[in-house]
Design a protein that fits this description.
The protein is 34% helix and 18% strand. The protein has 207 residues and is α/β, with parallel strands linked by helices. The chain has a single domain, classed as Rossmann fold (3-Layer(aba) Sandwich), CATH 3.40.50.1240. A six-stranded mixed sheet has the order 3-2-4-1-5-6.
């Protein structure tokens, strides 16, 4: 009699960074690098407390300061430390980086209109397209899931990246991806039963 192979269950925690420093609020930012505000660091404390009892095998973060600082707060309760995964970075908005939305509308009126109407179809000047971002994020997460099959792993990253992972798990098309909310320091959880995702939590905000 042939034995049925055991099915592995992998727990993937997706955590958005906390509130950013005040100087970039109201501006377009992806590649732009800056840290957390005092409130942002405070937002991560209940997240760290919630995950303190979770046996995390690894904590991965994008290379941006806001995610790295957030990941270090979570990692304070774990022995695995923090690993940087470059492909978990947010989309690069190119020439839009650091500009206010009013500035973008004035300087690039046609492209701004396209962005507001079809946000996932625009390729930002000297930046990335959404399709390229989705491809790199999807590839990176698949690699990490394969590396940590049967374990519990946390990715501390950006709202756009998390939406991409959740959209993939839920078969949400790119055009509808912004229907998925992601507040600062939001907690999300997906169980992968073998290769089949089961979304357990979306946009959980702890206090």
């Amino acid at each position: 009699m042939t034995e049925t192979p055991a099915i592995t269950v992998t727990r993937l925690w997706l955590i958005r960074h906390g509130e950013p420093d005040a100087e970039v609020r109201g501006r377009c930012y992806g590649r732009l690098d800056f840290g957390l505000s005092a409130d942002g660091r405070g937002q991560l404390q209940p997240v760290a407390k919630r995950l303190a009892s979770e046996s995390l095998s690894a904590i991965y973060t994008s290379p941006r300061k806001r995610t790295l600082e957030s990941a270090e707060i979570v990692a304070a309760h774990h022995a695995c430390g923090v690993r940087i995964e470059n492909d978990l970075r947010e989309i690069d908005f190119g020439d839009f980086e650091g500009l206010t939305y009013d500035d973008i509308a004035k300087r690039y009126p046609e492209l701004y209109g396209q962005w507001m109407e079809h946000p996932t179809k625009v390729e930002f000047p000297n930046g990335e397209s959404f399709s390229k971002t989705r491809a790199r994020v999807t590839k990176a997460v698949a690699m990490l899931l394969d590396r940590h099959a049967g374990q519990s792993v946390a990715l501390v990253t950006h709202g756009g990246v998390i939406r991409i992972v959740l959209a993939g798990a839920l078969s949400v098309p790119s055009a509808n991806i912004f229907r998925i909310a992601q507040r600062y320091a939001a907690v999300n959880l997906i169980h992968f039963v073998g290769n089949h995702p089961v979304v357990e939590l979306i946009n959980g905000v702890l206090s």
